[in-house]
């Protein structure tokens, strides 16, 4: 089976997933007010993503409502358990993982869900943490010979990420995560993202659904209450990656402080070839070896078509 076939496989009969077509899923938004404006949607979407107000209403508004229901039910179960054990209620944040390939749009989805979930009464405080902050600094990656494998599982400080999320799940009043600069393409020393016991924490990253390297260890995904995998055919993701590289060449790469400023002077043909080399040498192998095989671990799968629009939703049966 080709990578493209594997990327968009549908749920077979008696699958663990419900397969819900876009038209059916969008009907779940009936009667739910649209909380975001066109301007807010434009501000949330990433380069190359075609997210619009209709997509928000038909796909992500129902998803945010479902997540809110899960979060509220989990909080209620936590309170009931505390009552049963004659303990003080110590309900901890509901954690959502968002996984998928580079350029598939998972960062936009994570930002969007943060905004939408914060509008529901039961989850007003929502924080977003990306796993980029848990990449080893470039100096350490160089020392380990991993600069060409940045984004692969071994390029992350997985123990630090698990420790961070364990503190969040334990109800610690304040937990700090390292800050990653995409402009500098590196961890920023002494800069942090601080999480102060919100209702929901969204964790977005390539490999967040990876099982532990050692079966005796805890993985990041073990600490999720709900997980989402953003799926698309590999040929479409390849195109989106190249188009995003071209857009960055004409914007962020031209910043004199950008790590990638050397690419700003490429003509379009050279830029396409450079992007394809990055894709074929790094991102595609990572997708096929590490990211795609974790799709079946997700609670929900969003399957996108060639225009970035979600066509099918797979929801794991309880």
Task: Please give a structural write-up.
The structure is a single chain. A hairpin with a 4-residue loop joins strand 4 (175-181) and strand 5 (186-195). This protein has helices spanning 3-7, 22-26, 38-44, 53-84, 106-117, 138-144, 158-170, 234-249, 268-291; strands at 17-21, 94-100, 126-130, 175-181, 186-195, 200-204, 226-231, 300-304, 310-316. It has one domain: Rossmann fold (3-Layer(aba) Sandwich), CATH 3.40.50. With 318 residues, the protein is of the alpha/beta class. It contains 9 helices and 9 strands. The mean pLDDT is 91. The strands form 2 sheets. The chain has a 7-stranded mixed β-sheet with strand order 1-9-8-7-2-6-3. Strands 4-5 form a two-stranded antiparallel ribbon.
The largest sheet is:
7 strands, mixed
Helical proportion, percent range: 25-40%
The count of β-strands is: 9
Assigned CATH architecture: 3-Layer(aba) Sandwich
Number of helices: 9
Mean pLDDT: 91
Computed over alpha carbons, the radius of gyration is: 20 Å
Tag the structure with descriptive keywords.
318 residues, Rossmann fold, 7-stranded mixed β-sheet, 9 helices, 9 strands
In short:
The chain has helices at about 5, 20-25, 40-45, 55-85, 105-115, 140-145, 160-170, 235-250, 270-290, and strands at about 15-20, 95-100, 125-130, 175-180, 185-195, 200-205, 225-230, 300-305, 310-315. The protein is an alpha/beta fold and about 325 residues long. α4 crosses α5 (about 105-115) and α8 packs across α9 (about 270-290).
